[in-house]
Amino acid sequence: MTGYLIRRLVQMVIVVMISAAASYALLNLAPGGPTAGLRQAVQGGRNRITAEDIARIRAYFELDLFLPYRFSRWLIGQPRGPLTIFGREFFGDTIVGCYQERMATVRYADGTIKDISLGCAQDVTLGDLVGRRTSNGVLFGDFGLSWRLLRDRPVTMVLASRLDRTLQLISLSTFFSLVIGIPLGIYSAVKQYSVFDYVFTSLAFMGSAMPTFFFGILMILTFAIFFKNIGLPYLPPGSATAVRAYTIPWIGTVQPESLLDHALHLILPVTVLTIVNISGWSRFIRASMLDVLRQDYVRTARAKGLWERVVVVKHALRNALIPFVTIIVFSLPGLFGGAIITESVFSWPGMGRLYFLALGDYDYPVAMAILFITAVLTVIATLLRDFLYTLVDPRIRFS
Amino acid sequence: MTASVAPLSAEGISLKEKTPIQIITQRFLRHKLAVASLVLMLVLFTISLFAQAIAPFKVEEIAVGKRFVPFGTVDEKTGRIHYMGTDDLGRDYFSRLVYAGRISLSVALISVFISQLIGITVGAFAGFYGGIVDSILMRIVEFLLTIPTLPLLLIISSMLMQNETLISVPEPVLVVMGKIMLLNPRDSRQAVIIIIVLAGFGWLTAAQLMRGMVLSLRNQTFVEAAKSLGASDVWIIFRHMIPNAMAPIIVDASLGMAGYVVAEAALSFLGFGIQDPVPTWGNMLSATQQFMNDRPWLPLIPGLPIFICSLAFNYIGDGLRDALDPRLKL
To answer: Is residue A247 part of a domain?
Structure first.
């Protein structure tokens, strides 16, 4: 048992490190970043941005360091300067980056003109890093500064400002999906081949084939636009709160930021997520319930003369829910990461939309933080799943 | 006393034997929704195949001064009809929809083909040889399957889309893809990258399925027989294992089509897929989303085929599962 846990923990750390390195490398190969668009931004007039300015900005965001050093500073906040042992400095002259490249414009024989690099004009050494601002490292909970969305603010702050919105959305929809989806799945399995079962499985099938973004747009068209046009009480089409007061027929005037306002804005996205979840989960429950209901011990329970309700709830359901543990546990990363598409459709200011905006706007520290935390949560979820399995099902042993 | 018994002919007592293909077709035909879906998809594919003949306008053709014209407006100069009106720039909506269908369906089809090919090969070799390579490979597959795919798809596609030098797609590939999707080679690069991204993540389930099948087939007697006849490993894998493991793979491919149509649309919808002048159902939907207050049909029209394709391929997959291997049914 202890050996197993230790092995799993080691595996977990390795996986987290690999995914961190991979995501970091991926995003740093991508173009853009804090200097994207600067060259075009303030051209003309006195505010012309020079190559020197760009080099300074690159240095400010550590883009002048070589990838391994940058990664290590991002991950553990080291190296911060030369190695100091007993007051003596080592490796102070080691080159860790390039402040500014020496560029030259070359005209080729075929007439094309290209800027090529002639090596480094000014190196960055380990000694230069002393006194530079740095994060304490991702592993210690410091994700550095945002590049573009909220320039120079800590990423953790950006994330924290969005987290509660995503938590609201995902926890509410998960709650409703469980409360509605599980009974539906059970009922459908118990009444197999009934009209209800037929209708329900068809609907669930369609629901799981429905693309979320199209579903969201359909909901907005129906409940926000169509209902408003025909004078029925309508729902706000997007965002999390209103800016100014608005009037809804039958309900009256809604003040922005009031509880009612929050609730009204939550309804559409939560409904979309809930329906999508239900159609997947309840089909799963139905299948696993049908599987269990065919088992011998269920027949034994019935033969003993137990009430059907007791058979279903106490004997069958318990075992049917075991595979469901996986699904529940793996909604943990979603609780943090949000739902990218649904949040985008409804302009819900949550994590998913933040991630999407950060990628589109080259704010890689933010995107990377979300990706990294999601990966860690996924790994934790995997561990939790295996642990819960052994807890709920004694037949499964650690191996 | 002997009663005369009419001699029984062999034809009289035994049912006529059916070929496996016949049995499968018969079983598939029993699934009405799957058949309907298949017919619908054949129609869609035919429309896409003859896109140039069916669409009255070109994709980028802008009718100047004719934004948002209503359905069925006739173009005075040429007499062509805007069947579904025009979009915000005055481009014919129906023509764009038809061309978009060709692009979306081709992307999905090619992605399925490539991902199944990779999945089958990796899964078959991992399952057949086992050992340390197998366990490392399957660990990776398991991990990739657990992480949420969309964030990764977004990152990789945004990185590849913006960085032309990082992955240089060979010119002939671009030209061929351009021919398939009716695009010029410059634009078909986007489609190729989407295919790479989708297929790059799509082979995982196929690999798992194939590995499972190969593991169960490995100890069958016919494999032993082939081995004792001196067949090489590659021969056994390609001649005996893969054909016998095709049932779940075909089902997976059909469900994969549904997944890829939706995934491509989702990427384009979020702006990380194929970009605007090139039409796809996803980017048409996202481009016209802003006009849905006054013109709700504009986002509905490209959204419907995405939903229909997704549903239809799911039904076809369901029908194929019933037909090929009833034991697989959930």
So the answer is: yes
**Looking at beta carbons, which residues of chain A come within 8 Å of B148?**
333-334, 337, 374, 378
**Tens digits of per-residue pLDDT, A214-255?**
999 999 999 988 888 888 888 888 888 888 888 888 887 888
| CATH code for the domain in which residue A164 is found | 1.10.3720.10
More confident residue, B196 or A4: B196
List the domains of chain B with CATH numbers: 20-47+99-324 (1.10.3720.10)
Chain B interface includes A60 (CB < 8 A):
no
Average pLDDT of the segment spanning A272-276: 92
* B76 or B222, higher pLDDT: B222
The tally of domains found in chain A comes to 1
Chain B residues in contact with A229 by the CB 8 A cut-off are: none
**Is A87 contained in some domain?**
no
- Domain residues for the domain of A259 are 157-392
User: Does the residue A219 lie in any domain?
Assistant: yes
Contacts of A26 in chain B (CB under 8 A): 155-156, 159
Q: Do B163 and A30 touch (CB under 8 A)?
A: yes
Say what the pLDDT of residue B329 is.
47
Taking only the tens place, the pLDDT of each residue in A278-303 is 998 888 899 888 888 888 988 898 89
User: What's the confidence (pLDDT) of residue A278?
Assistant: 92
Instruction: List the one residue out of B61, B89, B88 whose CA is nearest residue B75.
Output: B61
Judge whether A362 lies within some domain: yes
* Minimal CA separation from A368 to chain B, in Å: 10
Question: Tell me: the pLDDT tens digits for A113-128?
Answer: 777 777 777 777 777 7
Q: Does A355 touch chain B (CB under 8 A)?
A: yes
pLDDT in tens, A141-169: 788 888 878 877 888 888 888 888 899 89
Q: Which residues pair with B84 in a beta bridge?
A: none
Interface residue A365 vs chain B (CB under 8 A)? no
Which residues of chain A have a CB within 8 Å of the CB of B147?
19, 333, 374-375, 378
Residue of A nearest to B264 (CA): A211
Global pTM reads 0.86
Is B146 in contact with A378 (Cβ distance < 8 A)?
A: yes
For residue B328, give how far its alpha carbon lies from the nearest alpha carbon of chain A (Å): 12
